[in-house]
Amino acid sequence: MDPLGIDGVWRHTPHVHTDPRGSFLEAYRAADLPRRFDLAQINCSTSGAGVLRGVHFADVPPGQAKYVMCVSGSVLDVVVDIRVGSPTFGRVETAVLDDETRGAMFVAEGLGHAFMALSEQATVVYLCSEPYNPGREHGIHPLDPALGIAWPAGVEPVLSDKDAKAPSLEEALATGLLPDYRRCQEFYATLH
User: Fold this and answer.
1) Which is catalytic among the residues 56, 113, 138, 141?
2) pLDDT by residue (tens digit) across 151-179?
3) Distance, CA of 113 to CA of 118 (rounded, Å)
4) Is 113 a known active-site residue?
């Protein structure tokens, strides 16, 4: 696992073994994670080209950490530091996840997560540390210019009604919706 520029985001690049029969890789190994990750739910979504899901996050504690893989097609995976008080607040990390390199992203609780399908169809599997809880789940509008996410040019984003109606970063901040960095750090300390 390689740490990225936001505390709480790591990228896994597996070694893919290939031979004439196909390929094999270890997509997930708990021992390789930088901290404890209690698996509570596995989600699988399929998306057509341009489908944009997110920016999603959950209240911390307990939040919802995610281990994200694209098992078919390709996506632009995006993590935004939305933790109020974080030294990297507002920073964005992106990575292309696809069915060739088979990389994955580990996203800690309290961070915003989104992805856009780059291929005609993409299947994303994400392991979650907590089950879905609609009362604790939130979003920020993924096209908010304040986020500064460089979505692919020439691709018309397809959003759900819920994501299209999500507040801007400024609105989420003003209403106290965003996670607190200090509380996140305290929670992370319980996971070692």
Assistant:
1) 56
2) 999 999 999 999 999 999 999 999 999 99
3) 16
4) no
How many angstroms separate the CA atoms of 26 and 18, rounded? 13
Query: Which residue from 168, 124, 123 is spatially nearest to 142, judged by alpha carbons?
Result: 168
Amino acid at 72: S
Active-site position among 12, 113, 126, 141:
126
Convert the pLDDT of each residue in 28-87 to its tens digit: 999 999 999 999 999 999 999 999 999 999 999 999 999 999 999 999 999 999 999 999
User: What type of residue is 43?
Assistant: N
Residues 2-189, CATH architecture: Sandwich (2.60)
The full DSSP string for 74-131 is EEEEEEE---BT-TTTT-EEEEEEETTT--EEEE-TT-EEEEEE-SSEEEEEEEESS-
Is 56 assigned a catalytic role? yes
Counting Cβ atoms within 10 Å, is residue 63 exposed (0-12), middle (13-18) or buried (19+)? buried
